[in-house]
Fold these 4 entries.
Entry 1:
Amino acid sequence: MLTPHGWIAVSVTVAVFLALQLRRRAPMDLLFLGGLVVVTASGVLTPQEAVAGFASTPVLTIGSLLVVAAGLRATGVLDWIGHRCLGSITGERSALGVLTVTLVSTSAFLLNTALVAMAMPVVLDWCRKRNVSPSRLLIPVSYLAILGGVCTLIGTSTTLVANATLNDEYGSRVVELARVQLADPADLDGHAAFVESVAPMRLFEIGCVGLPCALVGAAVLLLCSRYLLPNRTDLIEKLGEQRREYLVEMLVQPDCRLIGQSVEQAGMRNLPGLFLIEIDRNGDVITPVGPTDVFHQGDRLIFTGVVSTIIDLEKIPGLVPAADMTYEFHPTKRQQRHLTEVVLSRTSPLIGTTVRAANFRHHYNAAVVAVHRNGARLTNKIGNIELEPGDTLLLQTREAFIARYRNSRDFYLVSAVEGAAARRHDRAWVAGALAAALVGWLVISSLFNDKVVAVPDLADHWRAIWTSLSAPSVIAIGVAVLMVVTRCLRVSEARGAIDLQLLFTIVGALGLGKALSSSGAAESMARGMVSLVGDTHPLVLLIVIYVMTMIFTEMITNNAVAAMLLPLAIAVAWESGHNPRPFIMAVTLAASLSFITPIGYQTNLMVMGPGGYRPRDYLRAGLPIALVVGLTAIVLIPQIWPF
C-alpha cells in the first residue's frame, strides 16, 4: 500500500510529466524545481534532501564537462574533430551512420555523459553548416551513447553503481556464509554457490548481452530514425541567420590545412550560404571553381557568403581575410579583437575611397574583413571596391569599438557579431592534452577503483585520497579549472558555458526520484508487481523484473533504480531458489537503457533543450528501441547465465 507521502510523490511526478506534455513552452527547469518544492513542502523530502541534488555527482560532473567542452571549442579542437568525423558528410543519413560507429565504440570506454557533452557542439555545428535541424540528430547522440555504455562495466555510471551495490551485497553474503558454515555445514554448498553468483561483475561480462543490445538498438535507430524523429525547422533559423551576403577574400597561409586538398575534400562546396567565386593564384584566376580544384599556399579565395559562414572560414587555422592586410591573425592577439558589422553613413569620411585606401587601422583601429552592398554586384577584388553610403562592412575591431562609435556620424549602425569569438589555435594542443588526460583518468579510475579500495594493507589516508581522485566529479572539475588556468578559456567563457537550465532540470529530476524512493512508493510498487507473478517459471519472473526496472528507470533515475532494485532481485532469486545472476544482469541492463522519457537518463535531458524536444518525442523515438533491446536482453540473458 502506498503511504500518503507515496501518493504525493507519484502525483507530483505525474503532474510534471503532464505539464511538460501539455504546456509546450513551459520552462523545464521551473517545472521540475516547482515539483521539488511541492514534495519538500509536503514533508516527503527534508530540505537537506531537496537541495542535495545541487552537490550530486551528475550535476557537478555535467557542469564541469560543459566547461571542458567549451575549452575544446574555444581552442578549435572540436572544429578539428568535427572536420575529421563529419567534414565530408553532406547527408543526415550518412552523418547518423558515422555517429553510430563513433559514439557506440567510444561510449564503451568513456562515461556517456562526458561523451555527449563533447559531441553536442560538434553535431550542432554540422547541423548549422548543412542546414539540418538538430532535432534530427541529438536524440540519436544520446541513445547511441547509452547503447555503447552497456558494452563494458565502465561505459556508464549505472553499471558502476550496480557493481558497487553488488560489492556490498557480496560482502554481506560472505559474512552470512561464514555464519552458515558454523551453524549448518550441510547447507554450505547451496549458500556458497549463491554467494559466488552475486560477486561483482567483470569488465566485459555485461557486454555479453550489452553488445548485442547495442547493435540491435543502433540498427533500429538507423533504419527508423527518419520516421521517428521530429524535424523542427525553426531550430535551423536559431542556429544561423540567412541574412545579407558579403564578399570576402581569404588568403591561404603556409600552415593552412586546406593546402593539398580539393574543394570537395575541404568541404567548401557544402557550407550553406557560401559560394566560392574564384581562386587568384599569383595573378592567374581560376573561375568557375570546380570540385576537383586543389588549394595551394598563397591562394586568394573569393567567396560570397553570410556572416555565419564567414565566421566558419575564420575558424580554419591558416585561412585569414586578405581584403585588409592590417587584419590581426596571431591567435593570442586576436583574442583582443571581435567581429563587428557597420553601415556607412552619407557623412562618413570614407565615402568615395577604396577599401585599400581607406586605412581603417589608422582611423578606427579596425580591419575590413568583408563587404556587402544591397542591389549591386560587387567586383571580386575587395581592396578596389569604392565605398558608398549604405555599404555594410564586416570589421575586425577592438572591444571598445562599439561603445566609441555607436553614436558616431560615420555609421548608421554599429552592432557586434555573435558567436564570432576567435579560436585559440595556439592552445589547441593544451586543451587536447587535458581532454585526453580526462578520458584516460576516467577509464583508469573505473578499471582499478574496486581493486585499489580492496587492498587490505592500504593506509586509510591513501585510500581516502584515491577515492577522491577517482571520483568523476572531482576529475571533471579539476580539468575544467585547468582549462581556465592554462588560458584555453576565459573565466567569463567558462561561466557562460554552464547551462543552468539543464543543471536545474537535473536537480529537480533527482529530487523527484528521491521522493519516489524515500516515500516507499517505488519499493511498494516493485514488490506489488513481483508478488503478482508468484511462484511461476523463472523466465516470467525475469521479464517482470526487467520491465519493472525499465518502467522505474523512466520515472526516477537510473542510478537510484539500480541501487534500489538489485537487492530486491537478489532476494527474489533467493526465495524462489534460482540463480541470481540473470536477475542481476536484467536489473543492470534495464536501468542503463533509458530511451522513453527525458528524465530517465541525464544525457536525454542534456539534448532536450538544444534539440527542441518534448516528452512525446522521446516516447515516439525511444519506445521501438526499448522494446527491441528489451526483447534481445530477455532472450540472451538466460542463455548466458542459466537459471
Entry 2:
Amino acid sequence: MLAEVLGSSGSPAAYLLIAVDLLLSHWPKSRDAAIPFLACPELLSIDRERHGHDILGLNTFSRNLVGSAGLERLSASRVHSLEELLNKYVSEPELREVLKTRLRSAATRLGPPDARSNFRDSAFMAVHALNRLDPNNWREASVSMPDGTQCTGYQYVSPEAEAQHLAALEQATQGWHSDTNMQAALSLALEDPSRSSPELVTAAVEWAQRPVVISETEGRDEDEDWMRDQALVNAAMIAMRDGDGELRVRHEAWARGVFAQAVQTKDDQVYRSRSGLSFNPVAVAFVGMIHSLRVRTAPGNVRDLLEVATRKDQAAAHGYGAAANILASIDERLPRAVLRCAFAACIRPNHEWNLSEEEVAVRSERQRQQVLASVDAELAWLADERLEPEWPDFPLEPPRFRRRLRLPGGRRQQETPVPQRSRPDEYVDHQAAALWLSKTHSIVDIGQRPWLLKIAQSYASWTAAANGTGMDLHEEIANPPSEWNDAYFDLLAQSLPGLALPEIEQLALTPIGVLPDKAFYDIITGFLRSVDAVYFSDRGLQEPIAIRIRSVLANRMMATSGWQHLAGNRSSSIEWHIGPAIAVLFFNVYGFAHSAQCYLLPNGIDRLDAFLPVLEQLIEHGPSLFVALVTLNLLEVSPRSAHLPFLVTAAKAWLRGYPDHRDFWVDYGIGRRVCVWIEEVRRQEPTLFDRNEAMRMDVDRLLAKLITLGVAEASRLETAFARGSGSGD
C-alpha cells in the first residue's frame, strides 16, 4: 500500500508523484501516456515558496520518506500500473476529490478529446482518469484469484461515451493489424522462397494494390508509411518471382511501376556493409526487375536494369547476388553485361580540394557520359550490333607506403625518397567493385562460364600493382585493396581448374610471389583457402596442381623475414599478418578474435598424404609454437597410423628447437597432445610399433625426452609400451 511506503507523510502531491513515476516506467499502454500528468501543472502544483526551484517537489518528497526501508518499499511498488493506483483513490473519498478537482482543471485546460484521441493523448487520459475515479463506473463482478478460486469484487466498466470511443478506435486499428500481418509474411518470404505460396502471392498483390484509406480515427506516422512502402516493393518482387506466368503478365506493368519508384531512393552507402535484401528497396526492386524479364526482355527493360547497376551506393549488388542465376537463365550474357556496367560506374572522378567548381562539374559530367556509354555498348552487344565490350580498365593510383614508427633514441635509417607523382583524374572505388565481384558466387562455374576467367585475367595487373608489386619485400602499403583482394583471389582460385600449370604460374603464383611480405601474407590467407575449397570439393583441380600451388607458396613463406624471425622464437604471440598465412598453409583458419582451427573434415584427411612433404619442409625450417599448434590441429581431426612418421619427424624438429622449454611442452600442452595422438594410433593398431622397430625406437626416444621435460602423459604411455598392452591402460 502507498500509505505503508509514505508513512505518515502521504500527501496527495506525493501520491501523484508516485503515479507519474509508475506511469513512466511500467504502465503498459504507453510511456507517452505520462504526457497528461507532465503537461498539467494542476496535477503537480506544489507551493513554490516552500519548494523553490524544485518544481515537482521531489527533494521534499524524498526527505519525507521513512528512511532506506521506505525507499526499498517504494522500489517494490513500481510493479503496479497507474490504473491500479487510480483504483485505490476510489475508496479514499477525501483524496479522490482532491485528485478529481485537479483532473477537472486539467481537462478544462486541455479541451475535450477528438475522435482520434487514444491512450497516448493528454486530453483523453484526463477524461479517462476522471471516469476511473467515479464509483458509479464500478460494477460488482466475480473475480478469479491467482489460486483459481472465485470471489466477489468490483470491475471498472467504461461509461457509454468512452466505450463507444474505444470501440471506434478498435475498429480503426483492424486495418493496421491486417497491414502488419501482411508485412510480416512478406518479410519472411523475401529471402526465403520456401515461406512463399500461391495464396500469399495472390493476397499480397491484392493487398498492395488496394487503395490506402486513412479514417478520421486512424493516424499514420512516418515509420508506418516507410514500412508499408518497403512491403509494397517486397510484394511486387514476390509477385514477379513466385507468381505463375498468367499472374506475372497481368501485373507486370504495376510491378514495374513499383520498382521504378523504389530505385529513385537516394544513394545510401550503408548498403556496402549491410548484406541481404531486407530494408534495401533498391536490391529488392533489382531482383523484381530481373524476374520480370521472364515476362518481357524489351530493350527498355534491360536498359533500366543496367542503369540501376550503375548507382553509386551499390545497393543493387545485393539483388545481383540473389538473382544472378535467374539472370543467366534468361540470357547468359546478361550477368556480365550488368557486372561491366557496375565496374564502369566504380571508376570515379578525383575531386581535389583545389579544383574549381567548373572543373569538378566537367569531371562529373565526363564520368556520367562514360557510364552511359558503357550501358549503350552493352545494349548494342545484346542486340548483336557489335562485338562484346572489353572489361573496363581500372585507373591505378600509386600505392602509398606505410610510415614506420620510430622510437625516441632509435637509429634512424635513411629512407629512399618516394617520387612525387601527379594524381590521376580518376580513381577506382575498389570497395564498390569488390562488392559486385563477390556477388558472382552463385554463378561461379568456369566450365559453364569461361568469361569469369576473363575477369581474373583482365584485372591481374591492376591487382598486383595495387598490392605493391615491384616494391621492396619489407615495405608495407598503407591502403591495400583488402575487400577487392578477398573477392578477386577467390574468383582466381575458382578459375584454376582446366588451366595448365604454366598458365597458373603466370596468372597466380608469380604475381603473388613477388609481392611485399605483408601483402603476400594477407593474400595467400584467402587465396589458398579458396584453392583448398576447390580441390577438396572435387571441382576439377588436379592433385599435382594443388600440391604445386601449396609448395610454391610455402617456399615463398620460408623466404620471408617474418618466418625466419619466428623459427625458434619462444614467444607465444604471433604477428597478425603472418599468423593467418601460416595457419592456412597447415589447413587452419586463424583470426584476431579466435584461435586456430582446422577447416578440413575427416574426409579431407583421407587426401592429406600428398601434402605432408610440403608441411614437413615447413616444420623442419621453422619450428615454432604456432606451427606446432596448427600441425596438431590438423592431425587431431582424424588420427591415422599412416601419419605417424610425419608426427615423429615434426616432434623431433620441435625438440631441436625447444629442447628444454617446459612452457612449450607442458604449459602449452604440445607434449600432452603428441602423446595422446600416439596413444590413439596405438589403440587403432596395437601391433604397429611391433612391426616397425625403427619407428618404435624413435617413439621411445621421444617419450624419454618428454618425460625429462615433465610431460606426465609420456610416462604413462612409456609404461603402457613396456607392458605391451594394446589399450595403454
Entry 3:
Amino acid sequence: MRAHFLLLIALVLSARAVVAQSYAAATLGSVSPSGVLRGATMALTLSGSRLHDATGVFFDDDAIVGQLLPPAANRNQLRIETTIGSTARLGIHRVFVQTPHGTTNAVTFTVGDWPAVAEQPGNGSALTAQRVTLPCTVTGTLTSPGDADHFVFEGRRGQEFVAEVVASQLRSRLNSVLTLFDEQGRIVAENNDYDHRPDSLLAVRLERDGRYVLRLRDFENQSGNDVSYRLNLGEFPLVTSVFPLGLQRGTTAQFTLTGFNLKQTTVSFTAPADGAGKTITLPVESLHPAQVAVREFREALAPAKIAGPMIVNDRIAHGHPGYRFTARRQQRIVFEIEARRLGSPLDSVIEILDSTGRLVPRATLRPVAETVMVLNDRDSVATGLRLLSWNDLAINDYVYVGGEVIQVLQLPLGPDEDVRFRSLRGARQTLLDTTPVAHAMNSSVYKVQVHSPERTFPPNGMPLFTVHYRNDDGGSPLGKDSRLTFTAPADGAYVVRISDARGQVSDRYSFRLTMREPVPGYRLTMGPEHPNVPRGGSAVVTFTADRIDGFDGEIRLQLDGLPGGWHATEGIIQAGEATGNVVLYAADDAATAAGRLAFQVTGTAVINGQVATQRLEAERGVRLLTALPRPDVMVTTDRTQVVIQPGREVTLTARIERHNKFAGRVPVEVRNLPHGVRVLDVGLNGVLITEQQQSRQFVLYCEPWVKPLTWTFFVGGKVEGGVDNFAQPVTLTVAAK
C-alpha cells in the first residue's frame, strides 16, 4: 500500500513538473487600487502573470493615460503611473497591456470623483455604525458569513441621497442589498439589483433632518476576500430616465430628464447628419450616462397609427400601448425595440394582433415524436439538453420545448451527453422569433414539423402547438430588447402591441419602436481582438456574424495590412452558420505590431445580388499582434487533402513534435469543420495524444445530407496551461454520392 501511495505522489509531482515546463502567455488578473480619482495622477499595480517586461499599456478612454514604471521585483506585477484626466468618464473602465509574452486580457477598474474612505472593523450593527461624511467612496469587504457593514451620516430634509454599490463589474462575488434606516430604525428605502443589474443603487429624497444609517449586506450571506465593494455615497446627479430615447439624424430634439440632484430637467441636442446608427451621451452630468440613439427614420411621439419606415417614442406608463397599421398580404415588416440598450428598465414584449384584438398565428407545429428532459433543469442559455431518448432525432430537426423552437446541431455519441442545439455566443438560439426560457427536468420535448397556421391534421396522440407573432427577448446582440419579423397573412389592419414581460408599468419604461422593411445584412465581431501567435507557429481567430433580417448567405473574411513575417488564411462563414475561423501564422522573424491599428479585417457577402462589404473597426483604433516565443508543440497532419463521401468516414492522423522540454499530454482540436461533418471517436477526453505518444488517428464522418463542397479546416494541439498551435490547413472535399 505504501509503495502505491509513493508512486501516486511521484506521478502527481511529475504532472506538476510537466505543466511547469509549458510556455504560458501573459495574463491580467486584477488592478490595485480598484478605483481611482478623476483628475489625479497615481500609481496602479497590475497583477497577473509575466507582466514585468510589458511594452505598452492601453485604456478605453483617451482621457486616461499610463506610463510604465521600472519593473517590479515580482515578475507577475506591473506598476503604471496613471493620469486620469478631468474629462474621464465616471464609472467602469478597462485596461490591458502588451508584453513580449502576448497581449493580455482586459480587467476593469472604476473612476470616481470623491475621496476614498476605508471601511473600519466593528461596524456590524446600527449602534456601532461607522460615521462618514458625504460625498465619499467607502471601500470594504464582508469578511465573515452574515456580515453586514453599517454607515451613519447626518441627513437633512429634502436632501436627495444616492448610494451606489460597485462590485460585480470589479470581479467581486458580492450580491449586494442596501437598506436605509432613519433614527427610529424604520426602513426608509431598500434596493437589491437596481434595474435588474447585479449591483444595488438606492436613491431617495429624505423627509426629515436627522441621523440615517445605511446597511450593506450580501443577499446570500457570502463572505471572503473576493466579496468586496466600493460604495459611493452622496448627493450625486443621477438620471433615472430619458424621454424620448432618441432622434433622427440631422434633427434637433428636446429631452426630458428625471432623476436626482439634476441641475436641469430638459436638454436640447442636435444629432449630426452622418450620425445614424450611433448611440450618444447627452451633455448632462449624471452618475450613469444618459444615452440616446441616433437613427435615420422619421420619429413620432406616441401616435395612434403608424406607417413604416418610422420610429415610435413612447413609454409604458398606463397599460400596454398599441399602434394600428395596415399591411398587404405577404408583406414583411420588421418591428424592433430599443429600451434596455439605452438604459430603460423595460423588459419588452412585441405582439401582433388582428383587427379583432386576437394574436395573429404564425405557424402550426405538428409533433411527430416525443421524449422528456432528464438529469437536471436547464436555464434559458444552455446550449444542450439531456434527453431520455434521441433515436427519433437527426441533425437539423426542429424541436419544441416549453414555448421555444430550436434546431438540433449535434446528437450525443454516448448516454452521458446532451443533444446540442444551435447557439450564438454561448446561448441557445430560437427560431420563429420564439423566446428561450428555462426548462425543468421531465419537461416534454417534441420533434416537430413546421406548417402554415391554417393546416389541419388527423390526431396522432400528441398535441398541436400554435406559434403566434410574439417576441420577448431578441437574442444576441439585442438582449432583453425585442425584435419580430411579421409576414402579413392577408390584406388588412393590424395592431402592434408593446408590453413589459413582467406586466409592470412605470413612467421610466421608455422605449423606441422601429417599423421598417427587412434589410438583410450582417455584423461581425472578432475574438480574440488582439491575437498572440507563437513564432514559427499559428493561432486561430474566430469571427462571429450577427445575421440581420433573414440574411443566410456565405460571408468571406479577409485580413489585410499584416506586418512583415505574418500571413493569414482566408476565412469563410458558411451559409446558415454563425461563426468562421481564420488561422494566423507568424514566421520566426515576425514583427510585433504595437500601438494603433495594425491590420484590417474585412467581411464580404453577396446580398440580393449586390456585394456587401463590412470593415471591422478596432476598439478605439487599437488592434495588436504579438509574436510569442516558439511553441512547445508543432503540429502536422499526415495529409493536407481529404476527400469524403456523404454517409462515409475518413481517417486522419495528427502528429506532434515537442519542444522546450515539454513532455505533457496534448489534446487535439479540430476547428472549422463544415456543418454536417464531425469528429467521431472523441472519447471521454476527446482526441488525446498522451505523454508517451507522438501521434493520434481520428475519424471524420460526413452526414448523408451534406452537399458537395470544398472546405478548409484546421487541426491543432492544445497545450494545457500554455499556448496552442495549429497545423497547415487541410482541404476537405465532400464528393457527390
Entry 4:
Amino acid sequence: MAKPHLSTEETLDLSKAIGYSREKGKVFRENRMKLTREAVGHNYSDNGAADKVPINLMELALNIYLQRLVAQNPQVAISTFYPQLKEIVTRFELAGNRLIEEINLGKTLETAVSAAMFSKGIVKIYLNRTSVEVGGVFHDSGQAAVDAISLDDWFEDMTVDTNENGQFEGNYWYATIDEALKIFPGTTADDFTFRDEQTSSEDKDHQISEGNTSSREEFKRTVKFMDIYLKKQNWIVQAVVSTADGNDFTDPIGKVLKTFEWQGPENGPYRKLGFAELQGNTMPVAPAMHWFDMHDLSNRLFRKLGRQADRQKSWTGVRTGATKDGQTVQSVNDGEIVTLDDPKNIADVKSGGVDQATLAYVLVLKDLFSYFAGNLDMLGGLGAQSETLGQDQLLSASASMRIQKMQKEVTSFTTEVLKDLMWYLWYDPNPKQKDVIKKVPGFESIAIAVPFNPEDREGDYLQYNIKMEPYSMQHQSPESKMQGIRTIMQEMLLPLQPQMQQQGITINFEKLMKTVSKLSNIPELNDIIEYSSPTLNDQPVGQSSQVSPSNKTSTNIRRNVPGRTNQGQSQILQQALLGGKPQQSETASLGVG
C-alpha cells in the first residue's frame, strides 16, 4: 500500500477549502462568544459582558441544565451475550472505569455539554503515541485521551448538508517549541510558525480572561498546529498553521509535517454533540440561542429601572413669599411642634422612581424565560409551582420532558465517546498487564486485584457483541439518596416484608439507621439508638399484634388558602403594579398585610 501523500496542488486546494469553511463558521463563533460573555457577566474580567448583568438568566439556566445532564464522572456498564466471555468483559469494565477516572472524563464531557448549550460540543478521542504529554497530566504517553475542542479551534466542511458528507474536519492545537521538536523529530525551529507571530481580528474564548493583547509574554514560545482528518481517504494530515496576510482563515496550511492513515475507530477521532439538529445544515441550533433575546431584554429593562431608582428624589416645595415657613420646616426635628403662617404654603414632592408598569413587564419576562427554558423553577427546585406535592410531581414530570430528550442525546454522545475510548483500551498497541480491583460475589467487603492481561484482549473487539451503557452521570446528593431510601422502604420493602420473611429475607434496621444517620448528617442518632441482641416474640402464631383502634370521629374542614407558588406570587405582584387590587388572601400569600 502506497504511503499517504498530498501533492502540492492538493495541499493548496485543501488549505483554501479549510479557509473558506473557517470564514463561513465565523458568525457561529461570534454568536457563541456573545452568549458566553453574557453568561460570565460583567464582573468576571475586563473582557466579559459589556454592561452590567443584574439578573443573569443565562447563567441560571446553564447551571441547572448541567446539573441534570452531566454532573460527575460517568461509569460504564459493559455486557456481552456470550456467557463464556462474561469474566473477561467484567475485567474489561473494571479497567475501563479505572481509565475514565484516570483521565477525568467527566470534566471533559461537562465542557463539551456546556459548549453544546451555546453552539456545538466537540471532543477528540485519540491515542497519545508520542513521548510528550501535550495537554497536561491527563495525556500520558501511550494512553488514550479525550479532549474537548473549542469552536475557536474547530473547522469542518461547511459546503455540505450533513456532517457525514463532509470531506474534512479538524482542529488547531498548541505545543511549546520544546514539545514540538520532540513530537516531530528531524524538524527545527525554522520549520515552525509561532503563535505570537499570528494576528487575528476575531475574539476567542481565552481572551475573555486574558483580554485583548498585541503582544504576549510566554515562558516557552508556542507553536500552533492543525490536525486534519480527511474522511474519504481516512488520512490524518498534521501541519503548521500559516501566517499568510496575518490571518489563518484564507490559507491556513503553512507546512505539512506528517500524513498518515488513521488507525482508530472507523468514525474518525471526533465526536459531536448538538441538541437541535437542523436539516440540511451541519451546525445545530443551541438552547442558549433562544434564551439570549429574552435575557438581554430583561437586563436592559432592569438596568433602566435601576437608573430610575437612582434618579428618585423626595424634596419640599415652598410658595413664593413663604421662605420663613420653609426654613422652619427645614430645621425642625422629628416629633417637634412648630408654628407656621400657612401650612398650605409647603408641600412634599417626589420625582423619578421605578416605573411600575416596566417592573411588571420585567416580572413577566422572568416568568416567560423560565417557561421557554423548560420551567427552570421546577427543574432547579427554586420553589413550589403548585399548591400540593402531587401537583408539583406532575409538573416536574412534564418539565422533565425537555430535559429527558437532552439527557438522551448526552447519553448517546457519551456512549459513542466510551466506545471509542474502550476501543483503544482493547487494541492498545503496547499492551501491558493492568491489575483491576474486583469484589468477591457474596462477600462485597472483600476485594482482590485481578489481572487484565494482553492475551485476554485477543480477538475482534466488535465480535464480542459488547454492549456499553454509561450511568452515574447525574449527581446524587445525600438528600436525594435519603429520598430514594425512603421511597424504596415505603413502596417496596415494607409492603413486601411478609413475603420476604417467608423467603428468609430480612431488613437490617441497624444498618438502615446508621445509613440514615450518615446521609442526614446527624451522628447523634447513633448515640440515641441502642442496638442489642434480638428478642423472641412470644405472641402466638397468626395472632395480629395490631391494637384495634378506638372509635373515632373525623371532621373534614375545607379552607380556602391561596397557594404560595412562585408563578402565583409573581402574577399577584404584577396585578398590584399595574393598578389592580388583589384580594386580601392574595396579598397575604405575598407575606404582606
